[in-house]
Amino acid sequence: MELSDRKKQILRAIVDIYVSTAEPVGSKAIAALPDMSFSSATIRNEMAELTQMGLLEQPHTSAGRVPSAAGYRLYIDELMQDYRLSVDETKSLSGAMELKMQEFDKLLSQVGQLVSKATNLPAYTVASHQGDVTAKRYDLIMAGPDSFILVLMTTGEVVKNKLIKLPLEVSEQDLKLLSAVLNASLTELTAEEFTNELLSRVTRNAGAAASLVPVIVDFTLSVLREQERSNVHLTGHMRLLGQPEYRDVEKAQEVLETLDEETISNLPAALHQQGPVQFLVGPENVAKELKDTSVVMMRFDIGEGMQGTIGVVGPTRMDYAKVTAKLSYFAENLGKMFQKNAAPALPDSIETKED
Amino acid sequence: MELSDRKKQILRAIVDIYVSTAEPVGSKAIAALPDMSFSSATIRNEMAELTQMGLLEQPHTSAGRVPSAAGYRLYIDELMQDYRLSVDETKSLSGAMELKMQEFDKLLSQVGQLVSKATNLPAYTVASHQGDVTAKRYDLIMAGPDSFILVLMTTGEVVKNKLIKLPLEVSEQDLKLLSAVLNASLTELTAEEFTNELLSRVTRNAGAAASLVPVIVDFTLSVLREQERSNVHLTGHMRLLGQPEYRDVEKAQEVLETLDEETISNLPAALHQQGPVQFLVGPENVAKELKDTSVVMMRFDIGEGMQGTIGVVGPTRMDYAKVTAKLSYFAENLGKMFQKNAAPALPDSIETKED
DNA sequence: ACATGGCACTCATTTCCGTTGAGTGCCATG
DNA sequence: CATGGCACTCAACGGAAATGAGTGCCATGT
Description:
homodimer; alpha+beta; Arc Repressor Mutant, subunit A; Beta-Lactamase; Enolase-like, domain 1; five-stranded antiparallel β-sheet; three-stranded antiparallel β-sheet; 12 helices; 19% strand; elongated; DNA-binding
């Protein structure tokens, strides 16, 4: 069923006011708005109907109204107006974004911190792989009498290394042979495809450096597995305490205890629609402890078969428009950074990817 | 001046009770203790004196007594009895310690999480270098037409790598030359010792691959700098909320806002004594916002010229004995892991160090 | 000289109750 | 069908009284 324009206007007004005051909104407050040309009585009648439709809620008989989860959902889907960042806001955000492209993980975790700071809410970033993660290239370096450095490159252009210390008499030649074998047999395999049979064949062909094989395989598997599961960075938990709904420590604790990397990585399961920006409102959330919190998340493209998400967690009463605008800003700039990075050019400090 | 045995006994009782109840302790409660053979009136007199000596405090006239910072200090230095972990406790701790030696950083951050969980308080870990951090060895790998992998090993056996993408026509030979030059000229230098003059000489000698030099140097400097400043991992902030002194959100927020990696790395400045285990009680702390919190920290040896610390942050009223016991457990086991690691032997998954 | 029981006093905390005021629902009116 | 008016509801505020844990000090006993 369709809402009348007047009901929409009133619902929007209620959400807008409630978002900034965190107090139930009364009919008088709405009637007092500049572009509201009805009396409080009329608004009361409309509000009664909106309540009956399940879009508003009344904490108790003689209190104002508060948007219900359904109300927020409708607001987000149909009524929310784009928030335009002010010049000042843009300036402070862009000031913050001046960070070096260091380790990929660190970059994401830094951006998470920026988002959290900018929104004054807990924020998270996720980097997840699309498709299979496999080893692409192995290199072995002789680093000392009993020291070897293994350098492993995986899909997604991620490079990891490990210092191996083993008392072992081998020549550069032996290492060359081993890495040739590794590159021939153990590339383009996901962690699951490392069978025992395969490994024993590799060990047999490995020559003098065969005793390195188990360590190398262990490492490779742990790198592949780590990259398979999405990498979540969550920061700024304590900013929730600034929100009036968590003035009660019990409430805050409950939410904060549920809010870990684990929970975050389960969030996408609750999504219905598709699209670059997603909202999970209150009870739509995965964990029941989060029934009064909402999540706004936004995708951005990393390239190299990877997919990033930045998100913000806050009370259901959250300034969705503003948060969305800020997330967009960051997502857009991250996207740009990665595009720049993809193009092999420009000898400055952000066009390379390291690990 | 020396305290009478009876005063000591009473002070200890007050700290012990207050630590577990978080309520001011009255004379009656003390008199009721099994090994207390004096009447409440006698204890009242003693308490009055202890108060006058500045070891106890009285929140208001008709309330019980609470240990002052000086009282805690005396308790820690003289009265505290070793807490023996129960079998159950040891079991649950040792269960938790079964973690793989993965990336060094990750290991520390995991241990931090374990400590925080075990003590139910915020915890941190620090790894800091003793002495200069310098580059030890450079290797260059040709990873594709326009891709090069730089592998850098520094003091402390830390290995880092970076994928460099530059459109550049060079041969394996050119790379070999460049790495020889790097190893000859840019090792055993701290970040400060990288002068412009030196760099231009290196660039001149670098041959065909000279355009890689700026990227390599940038990376090297950032790795050296990152290792110079101590690496702090802080987790479990929200566990503070479980403590009764932070039932008031305002208080909690104030502390949580000050409690960041920055503050933690400044803590050692406040230490007077030496020793493996250190206590910072309330106002002894660096930041005034932390005047009601205490820190217990414990050193452990990493080897390779590195030095580790694990620590716990909590209210001044904290079970110092229990926390110390648990920290000892973790510090000891970490120490063992690193000793094992130092000895180049045993082909299982914890004897190598990776990054 | 010192431990103890007794007692008056203090003061934070809790409980109760009346007041206030924001907000609603509904009805009569224009 | 919008509006003004009016009775009603109920959380929140505030002050007064009751409660009780704890102290300080004194008189007494050993």
